[in-house]
Amino acid sequence: MAKIAYAQIEIVAGQPEVNAEKILKFIAQAKEQKVELIVFPELALSGKFVGNAFWQKSFLSDCEYFGKKIIAASDEITIIFGNLVGAENREIDPSSYFVAYGGEVRLQGSTKDLIEMEFNDEGRTREIAFQIDSAPFRIGDRAERDKFFSDQSKDLHRPLIYVNAIGIQNRGKTIYTFDGTSTVYNSRGEIVQCAESFKEGLNIIELEEIDRLPEQKNSQQLGIAEIYSAISYGAEKFLQQIGMKKVVIGISGGIDSAVSAALYTKILGAENVFLVNMPSVFNSATTKNLSEQLAKNLGCHYAVIPIQESVDFTVKQLESTQIKFLSKNKTEHLKISSFVKENIQARDRSSRILAAVSAAVGGGFTCNANKAETTVGYATLYGDEAGFLCALADLWKFQIYQLADYLNDAVYQREVIPQGIIEIVPSAELSDAQNVDEGKGDPLKYPYHDFLFRAFVEGNFSPEDVLKLYSEKILESVIGCAPNLVEKYFPTAKDFIEDLERWWKLFTGFAVAKRIQSPPLISVSRRAFGSDFAESQNIPLFTQGYKELKSKLLEK
């Protein structure tokens, strides 16, 4: 019987020598087990995201050099692998597949295409197709991929093996996880074998048996479970790549920093996580107690470093400093508003305390922002928007809450994130207007704004689109939020329009500059900020159609 192996390998982008060594190791294992054909993912030597190296002749030469080593190893086995080709061959496709046997390339083509092969198996010709890929994890992609390749195998009336990579790769700002989930489909389009997500390994199957094997139900994690797997895997691999073994997290008693703390503690161990609570006069006893309870539950290092004295000193220093307008021999003083004082608090926490603690322990400090805040820039530049990584920045607030429950229920299987943190109103606690004990919090109404902002980012909705749906009274059902929220939060059309314009101006205005300067993030959606979402620092636009519709609604 013809044995086929598909190798789900961790590819290190931009390191063909490292990848070649691993590929040759798997080829040797396959030979020992009398495998006739082994298949590797797309771009198995170079990686998918290699930046400017894609255009460097020396890098391409390295890929070609190690590609020849792979081809030479095909003396006793057929090898299918993906590699970059040199500029002179790019009329074929820069990402090509190679089928090698007997130390020679027998077939070459674009990795966009299926690779169709024939085997003489015990005197009978058997056909099979392969699709090699290098596809990052994205929520919902697995189901679509299974449907696509199931249909293809049925149309071809032959088995199909899909081979994907694992690992992390990045495009600067955006870090992608690769989950693998390499899959075997029989000629009826049924899944009969699937490699485990985010796990490297050599998987062997007998060609003759593929159509005899029972259909395998999809056992892959879905929903918040797969999101947790992708984020925890991505954060762990990123920490390994940059050599960071200790992490400092500013915890406020709020949900975002609590989830971040639980996530990193699971990855690094409690002994390598430092939680720092930095209260001002505006922080309640409630959130301070919740912060301490979180630290106790996780067993991490914990410190309370108040900031009020340093904030007061900064304000006093600024207001008492003379500003001289020398050309007119005029002197004046700054007036520090309550809004500026909020920014001073945020920057004092991150730029002064967390940065210093990180340096002292030999680690880095995290950014704990979620996608709703990032969308409209609800964060302080060089303050709570700072950090070496923002693991949660591609998750909406409702997903943060789901992740908190999942961490308690499934990951730790006990309450590490106190229920009080899950239930408390989200608040930055930067002024009396955000007093959590009085039920006051952030200006974002997350049950609605989460979905409005998601429509902006992932649905390409404009204010005109939103206002049209509002006028037709179908906005909530289209964007996916709970019914009756719009009327609850915005009693009049004027209220609704003012809110819509406020956030649209921020989303397309100064928030762009903040996002450009924010830390790298782990992508789990198709429209993560960074590489997947095209940004331009333009003036916010309100179209003519929007202005006409706005005028009609306000007249009513």
Keywords:
556 residues, six-stranded mixed β-sheet, 20 strands
Detailed description of the structure:
This protein has 556 residues and is an alpha/beta fold. Helices cover 41% and strands 18% of the residues. It has helices at residues 16-32, 57-72, 141-156, 224-242, 255-268, 285-298, 308-320, 338-361, 371-376, 397-411, 419-423, 446-458, 463-471, 475-479, 485-489, 493-507, 510-517, 544-555, and strands at residues 3-8, 37-39, 78-84, 95-101, 104-110, 115-121, 124-132, 160-163, 166-170, 174-179, 183-185, 191-194, 201-206, 247-250, 273-277, 301-304, 322-325, 330-333, 364-365, 521-523. The strands form five sheets. Strands 5-4-3-2-1-13 form a six-stranded mixed beta sheet, with helices on one face. Helix 5 crosses helix 10 (397-411), helix 7 (308-320) packs across helix 8 (338-361) and helix 13 (463-471) runs parallel beside helix 18 (544-555). The longest helix is centred in the middle third of the chain and has 24 residues, at 338-361. The chain is globular. The mean pLDDT is 94.
Give the SSE map.
Elements: E1 3-8, H1 16-32, E2 37-39, H2 57-72, E3 78-84, E4 95-101, E5 104-110, E6 115-121, E7 124-132, H3 141-156, E8 160-163, E9 166-170, E10 174-179, E11 183-185, E12 191-194, E13 201-206, H4 224-242, E14 247-250, H5 255-268, E15 273-277, H6 285-298, E16 301-304, H7 308-320, E17 322-325, E18 330-333, H8 338-361, E19 364-365, H9 371-376, H10 397-411, H11 419-423, H12 446-458, H13 463-471, H14 475-479, H15 485-489, H16 493-507, H17 510-517, E20 521-523, H18 544-555
Parallel strand pairs: 1-2, 2-3, 7-8, 10-20, 14-15, 14-19, 15-16
Antiparallel strand pairs: 1-13, 3-4, 4-5, 6-7, 8-11, 9-10, 11-12, 17-18
Helix pairs in contact: 1-2, 4-10, 5-10, 7-8, 13-18
